[in-house]
Amino acid sequence: MKYLVLALLLLPLSAKADNVEIACLALNIYHEARSEPLEGQRAVAAVTLNRVQHSRFPNTVCEVVKQARYKNGRLVKHQCQFSWWCDGKSDKPKEKETFYRIWRLAEQMYETYRDNTGGALFYHADYVNPWWAQHKSKTTKIGRHVFYRYKAP
């Protein structure tokens, strides 16, 4: 299964673009929320998809997931929108059954999007206190994640 995901990520974007997008969404849910309840996993997917629809973010799932800071063409470690993307660890899913279940969830969310976050574009784990949270409006807390959107002007 993990090799299927890697193969999908290497396909040209014109080839099965939806499967590539679903693969990126599934990897993001897996790495960000695999230990969360189903609603927490849906919420991480919703934030990813909310970003795709928002003008301040890239317009594909893969571009949103891989959004990061680059220096001299190289990814800067720990300077990504989603920490797993540039933490220096392997991105290959190790829990095959969990990943398969999350893949199905990613397919469902991609096809029939449902936002359970109140329009959130950001989140963090409840055991950290990031500097940026004070500049956002909290929308909800689901599982171990706290969700935010931009403050209204």
Low-confidence stretches: 10-15
Shape: globular
Biggest sheet, spatial arrangement of strands: 3-5-4
Roughly how many Å apart are the termini? 45 Å
Could you estimate the helical fraction of the residues in percent?
40-55%
Structural classification:
alpha+beta
Tell me the number of helical segments per DSSP (H or I, 4 or more residues long).
5
Over the alpha carbons, how many angstroms does the gyration radius reach? Answer: 15 Å
Beta-strand proportion: 15-25%
Main sheet: strands, sense, barrel: 3 strands, antiparallel
> What's the SSE pattern?
HHHHEEHEEE
Number of strands: 5
Features:
single chain; 153 residues; alpha+beta; two-stranded antiparallel sheet; 41% helix; 18% strand
Describe this structure in words.
The chain has a 3-stranded antiparallel β-sheet with strand order 3-5-4. A two-stranded antiparallel ribbon has the order 1-2. It contains 5 helices and 5 strands. By secondary structure, the chain is α+β, with helices and mostly antiparallel strands. Helix 1 packs across helix 2 (17-33) and helix 2 (17-33) packs across helix 5. Residues 10-15 have low confidence and may be disordered. The protein has helices at 2-10, 17-33, 38-53, 61-65, 96-111; strands at 68-71, 74-80, 122-125, 136-142, 145-150. The chain is globular and about 40 Å long.
